[in-house]
């Protein structure tokens, strides 16, 4: 019985506290809804209501601060028992509300305060913030109405309404637009503008040779005039030489450009993290989903800055890429990037190359007809500094010094290093990003590709030096995630493998701080029986160094093609051959007579076994004989051998009953 009474008392006490809090909120709403009250009066009344919502109201004092105004109850002072919440408007903290007990009370949830009391204070802070925003908008609206009335009476144009509103509400932007108008008038060759410029900038009267000459004496410092005083004259000159429509267009354009200045600042600042860059891009497209048009010089500058921050600081790469990539490309790219908090990492050379290559193809004049089917697989990217975070998280930093050891020692220790990486753990924030990537990529087989900072840079290809690993990506989400992390760890370990270290040493790159970015891509292909593979794959070279005919020129290029996954085209194998084609002379094949064609045709192919989850090398003959009609584009890949000649397969060809060879003659 006693226990029941205690529970009842506790329930009653809780209900009483809730009633106090609700009464407090009700009074706050009453005060905020009084239409004619002055702001200072409203805030003063609010601060005296606050203590009523707290458990020990008789001992509670309150403070409300808004910008440079402070309101508080009579006995308010800072003590050890205070609770505070910021007043936030449009992401900016403009003040706070605070309550303090003057003496100690028993601890409950948050010191002497209940969790519900913190929620109460937060709710009040939010409502005050909303009210202050409303008051601000109301004031601006009134100014706007007064401006329209005043200017309408003066029969002024629409651009003058906007300009006057700016002068009253955003004087900094008003001054920037005034400067731009002065520069525009100067560019138009208007004499009055030149005279105004000399009043604003006395240095403008100096001759070009005075500024650009070879004198070693410092230039004299001059003090700019007050453009506030000249602004009216500047726009009077503009009105004399430009029509109202042109002035309005210019002002609107400059206002729009000013709205995007945050993007310029974010991308140009080398200390800005990738998180901040993404937020700036998101905000840029949130303001206008289509993307506001940047000034040409600004557009190029933002592109170059984004290329430098995300891909490469190689000037040769930037000078090409900035003409083909769009700002919107980076916005969509960063949605599929995984990077640590505060990241300054890059995506690496392979990512940069494939990203730019597709943009160049897209810009090609033949894109719509000849190249419209060229696509890149759906991809996610892990920044290079995620590897450094991974190593730091597992105390593996000393392994970076492997590169300075004798190469035989590196080779001997490498298997242990690989296992050390594979048995390490990923930081939670990277795991979260990889989990999101898996949800997006689905259960299609994946390839985890290396994309180090040095890889595929101009002058250092690193072809085949770093790992790229195929994953079946089948099974439960946790199994697939574990397999993905295991593969990434192995690719990370390949950074300090013997082959890339030897390659770097030969090219004087050992002292370069190498980091490994990661590309996670869907594998292109389809299921055939238990296997997953593309019909064919290959690797292409701009220059042909293996010219089998005098009619083939070096610039005709070279393609190495194989059935199945392209690994056997990239990695030279001793027991098999790819099909070689010169794109500039596709009719000139390396082998002409049937015996040579059959002898040097590919006999094996790489596939992903979806049932075992393994990457496998299998006989082409076995796959085609067993699954011939399931094999995509089979009639374009193989030729039927009949005696001493080859012929294309027919629609009714039974591949289990005929001899054939991979020729790509279809």
From TrEMBL:
This protein's record includes keyword Plastid: no
Domain (Pyruvate phosphate dikinase AMP/ATP-binding) ranges: 347-609
Keyword Lipoprotein belongs to the record: no
GO terms assigned for molecular function: ATP binding; kinase activity
Coiled-coil intervals: none
Pfam families on file: PPDK_N (PF01326)
InterPro entries assigned to the protein according to its UniProt record, in alphabetical order: ATP_grasp_subdomain_1, PPDK_AMP/ATP-bd
Keyword list, A-Z: Pyruvate
Highest taxon, organism lineage: Bacteria
Record-given protein name: Pyruvate, phosphate dikinase
Organism this protein belongs to: Caldithrix abyssi
